[in-house]
Structure formats: structure tokens, C-alpha cells
């Protein structure tokens, strides 16, 4: 069992929902990123998504795009991100999922990329621009190395496509809650509830919901609709970027605790438990 699968299995046994915060590597610097990973780990995170800065982040909204731009301007390199992770992952319990685009993977070569991230302690990958039709070339070697490649289901995905993605996705299934890019929204679309039920009808794999969730009440709602995990990105990135690094770290720690408290318990009968 992979680290991510084991995490979801333990949470499901305890009737809990996974909190999956996202931050961008290198914003404001990698020293702060390492500290942020440890603070999130101590503050209720179950799995942590770490965005690899990329020059053309098509799936990211303005907050995360700006963070990636700042990180690149300050000289953040993929190799330095891996060095930071290699020193940091032994200090935390939360599995690390890299959020990266496919071009950097192809540029380095799939085998070399996977070997390097595995050596750094990475447990999973989310590759937002990797279509299902081209995923096999990454899924198979990643699975052999114990790295989960999690595929995304869009609100516009057909029933046939949802079933195919659910069958292939590793670790969990990532349900995108909105049509469009990442970013903070004032409310979560009620269609997410129907999509969760639809996905649940074809698989028993864990389902994480992300994109557009930015407040504890929204996280609680998604959990009550039956999600196994709640991913929050822009709201963390924004808080970490405000004020001094110390102020940003304090802010994300407090925010992480509030989100975890919001999803820790629920009396909803819709919650999925095996």
C-alpha cells in the first residue's frame, strides 16, 4: 500500500476526512517552504500538495500564478526543490504530492524524473495537463516506484470518462469543483454533490475535492457531501505571501487548524465510510 492510500485508509477507518493544503515551492523562498511544510504537518494537514513553479501554469488562477512567477524570479529550480524535500520529508508524516505540469516531466525524461522525486520522498503526483489518453506512460512506471499519479475529474467529464479516470487514477481521484482554473470562490457549486455520488457509483477509491475551496464552511460542506479529502490552495498561498515570512507561516498554521476543525466531525448521513 502506498503512503497516500495508507493515509486515506486510516482516515476512513477513523471516519475522518483528509485535509490537503497546497503551497508553491520557493515562494517566498525554499527555506520558508520547508518551514511551511512542517507547520502544515503539525497543524492538521493529512497530505500536502506542493506546486512546482512553472512558467506557463494553465490550470492555476491568479494567486498561484503570481506565486509561481515570484518563485521563478527568485531563482527557484526543480533540483533545489528536490534538495529541500530530501531534507524535509523525513521530518513530516504527511505524504507530499507534487503538483507539476507534464512538460517538465518529459523534458527530464519520465524515468529520471520519477527516480529523482522518489529519492526526495515524494509520494504522489498531480499533473493537471496530462490527459487520460496519454497517462499510461506515466502511470505504469510511477506505480512500480510506489508513486501515485492522481488524475482529475472535471465537472464537464462524461459518465464514460469519469469511469475510465476512476479506474486508472492512483491514490485517490481528484474532483475539480469548478469549471476553470484554481482560485478562491464565494461558494462551492452544488453540482459537486451530484458528481461525488456519480463517481462513488463506479469506484470505492477515495475522492478529494479541490479548486475553489477557500473557507472552513466550504470545506465542511464538501465533507458533508461525502468527499474523502478537501484540497485548499489559493487561500494558503495568499496567506503565506502576506507580511513577513514569519507572519505568513503563523497565518497558514492557524488557517490549517481551522480547516481541519471544520472537517473533523460531521453528522451528515451522506458521508461515505466502508
Automatic annotation (TrEMBL):
It is an enzyme of class 4 (lyase). GO terms for molecular function: tryptophan synthase activity. Keywords: Amino-acid biosynthesis, Aromatic amino acid biosynthesis, Lyase, Tryptophan biosynthesis. It catalyses: (1S,2R)-1-C-(indol-3-yl)glycerol 3-phosphate + L-serine = D-glyceraldehyde 3-phosphate + L-tryptophan + H2O. GO terms for cellular component: cytosol. Belongs to the TrpA family. Tetramer of two alpha and two beta chains. This is Tryptophan synthase alpha chain.
Amino acid at each position: 500500500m502506498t503512503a497516500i492510500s495508507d493515509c486515506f485508509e486510516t482516515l476512513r477507518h477513523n471516519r475522518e476526512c483528509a485535509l490537503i493544503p497546497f503551497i508553491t515551492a520557493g515562494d517566498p523562498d525554499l527555506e520558508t517552504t520547508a518551514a511551511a511544510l512542517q507547520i502544515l504537518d503539525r497543524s492538521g494537514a493529512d497530505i500536502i500538495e506542493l506546486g512546482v513553479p512553472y512558467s506557463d501554469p494553465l490550470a492555476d488562477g491568479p494567486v498561484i500564478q503570481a506565486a509561481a512567477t515570484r518563485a521563478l524570479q527568485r531563482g527557484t529550480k526543480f533540483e533545489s526543490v528536490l534538495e529541500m524535500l530530501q531534507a524535509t520529508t523525513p521530518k513530516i508524516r504527511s505524504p507530499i504530492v507534487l503538483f507539476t505540469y507534464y512538460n517538465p516531466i518529459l523534458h527530464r525524461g519520465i524515468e529520471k524524473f520519477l527516480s529523482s522525486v522518489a529519492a526526495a520522498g515524494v509520494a504522489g503526483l498531480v499533473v493537471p495537463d496530462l490527459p487520460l489518453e496519454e497517462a499510461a506512460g506515466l502511470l505504469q512506471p510511477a506505480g512500480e516506484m510506489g508513486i501515485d499519479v492522481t488524475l482529475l475529474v472535471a465537472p464537464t467529464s462524461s459518465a464514460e470518462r469519469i469511469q475510465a479516470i476512476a479506474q486508472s487514477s492512483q491514490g485517490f481521484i481528484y474532483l475539480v469543483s469548478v469549471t476553470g482554473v484554481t482560485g478562491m470562490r464565494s461558494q462551492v457549486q452544488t453540482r459537486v454533490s451530484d458528481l461525488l455520488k456519480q463517481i462513488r457509483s463506479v469506484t470505492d477509491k477515495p475522492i478529494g475535492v479541490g479548486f475553489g475551496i477557500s473557507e472552513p464552511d466550504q470545506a465542511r460542506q464538501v465533507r458533508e457531501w461525502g468527499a474523502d479529502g478537501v484540497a485548499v490552495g489559493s487561500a494558503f498561498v495568499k496567506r503565506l505571501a502576506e507580511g513577513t515570512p514569519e507572519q505568513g507561516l503563523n497565518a497558514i498554521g492557524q488557517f490549517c487548524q481551522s480547516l481541519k476543525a471544520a472537517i473533523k466531525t460531521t453528522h451528515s448521513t451522506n458521508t461515505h465510510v466502508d
